[in-house]
Every structure is written in structure tokens, then in C-alpha cells.
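pinned: reference chain
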Amino acid sequence: MVGEVYHRKWKYAKLSLINAQEAPVAVASPKGHVTAVMGVALSRDGKFLVTACADKTAQVWDLNNKTQLFTLEHPDGVSAVALSNDGTCIITGCDDCLVRGWELQSGKELFCLESHTGLVLCVAVSNDSKRFASGSDDDTARVWDMESKKELLKLEGGTGAVGCVNFSRDNKFIATGTEGVSSPKSCANGFTEPRGFTCVWDLVSGEKKHMFPGHTAAFTRSSKRIAVGGDTGSVVVYKVESGEKIFEVKHPKFSDECFFTSIVFHRDGKLMVTGNNDRTIQIWDMVSRKFIRTLEGHSGPVMSVAVI
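pinned: its C-alpha cells
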């Protein structure tokens, strides 16, 4: 077993093991939610799973005994969830335009932040747990200080909802994925834009460093590369420093209706896992740059993937 992947699926969640040599094994199907699961997060130690749902709740699960620990009640649908790496805090994004923080061990609400003017679609926590970010359909992403809860940066990359935020592991950059259409002149290397675009920002200055085609992205574990996907059937890997394209991998069964919804990397950096709206998950070998396998079995789009 080289890792675990958790992915959200329509109406309930499913936890699977990744093994490049053997078939995936489903080890849990938490069914505490009554409608679509909108986001998932795993604690770094692999003990806790948090799910975000359109039923106005986020739920915390004990993965050792496959039981639900507690429910985090919200006034509206919960679209996103993230966990701090120090194991203390849960961040949720809600359709009421607010970002909330919760204590992982007790489920106690710690704070509630007002800044966005639209639905909060995505959240992320920096690797050092000192900052967190949120993206919204108000066309902005915000970066917050974990200790003071003050807004540090307001990132505006173009017209369109921000549905993806991701910190680099060295805590120097943040990527924002936007589902709108950008100007072709503003894209890296003269690209014309497919479904949305991804901006890479300097976390100190707030300056935009690069813009790439594709609305979902993740930094590799080394923070030197970023993988970006969209509706073209490819995930393209670029150098973070220069923006140079290194290579791309193609969906094995791409159609005009499918697009990548989520990208994550395994902790050893050798595997990339992608979620797709065609109800499948793909596993890729980042060393050989080859497709390994597809995980199937979902009854709806796979919109979020988490790996430990």
C-alpha cells in the first residue's frame, strides 16, 4: 500500500486504498450525509476525515474505527473543508459567504470571518499552518493569518468564480483556479484559454507570477512544479519559477464532456491522483510520467480528492 486516497462522490463518501499493483479496496463508506458531499480533508496522521456537505453540515470521522465523531452545523450548504497540518483546526467554507474555523478535537467553533460577497467554494491551509485561504464566486481569493484572523491578501485574477486554492509546501506561493474566461494575452506562453485559468501568486508580495490554462491545480511536494488541469483532457506540469512547461499527461478516455476537477500528490511525490467529472479517478506515475490506473464505481462526478 503506497497511500490512501479519499474522494467525494455524489450523496456519500468513499475511502479507498491506492496500490499500483493491486485492485483498490473500499474501506469505508460514511453515510451520515443526506445529500451531495462537496469536499473532503484528511488529517496528516491519517486518523481523521472531515466531509463538507450541501446538507448544511461538515462531519468529522474517526478512520480507525470508521465512526462519526461529531457534526459541525452551518446555516447553509458547506462547499469546502480543509485541515491544518498541526492537527488543531478545521476550516470550512459556506454558501452564506462566511469562512469558519473549528477545533478538530472538540468540534467547537473558533471563529467566523466576513469578507467574501459570494459563496465560499474552496479553502486551504498552508503547510506551516500559519495561514489559510478561501476562494469565492465573488471572483476573489483571500489569504488569512491563522493567529490573528486578519486578511493578509485579496487576490483578483480575472472574471470568474475561484474554485481552487492551493499553497505550495514551502509556503512561498499560492495557486488560485478560476472558472471564468481570461484574456489570452494574460496567459503564460501565449496560451488561449480553455475552461478557466490558474494564477500563481507570491505570498509575500501578493504579485501574480504566472497564469496557466486550466481551473484546478496543485503544487508538487517539492514546490518546484505545479500541475494544472481543465477541460482539455490533459494535466500539464510546469516549473514554478520560470513557468516553463515540462510535460503533460492525457486522460485515457477523454471526451468533450469531461474535465479534471481535482489534483493531489501523494506524500512521496511519486504519484499524482486526479478526480474527474466523468465519475472516475486516475492515478499517474510522476517518475515515468505514465498513467497507472483508473478507479471507478462512483454514481456522480468526483469533485474533490485527498491523499495522505
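why pinned: The two ends are 12 Å apart (CA to CA). Confidence is low (pLDDT under 50) at residues 6-13, 15-30, 182-193.
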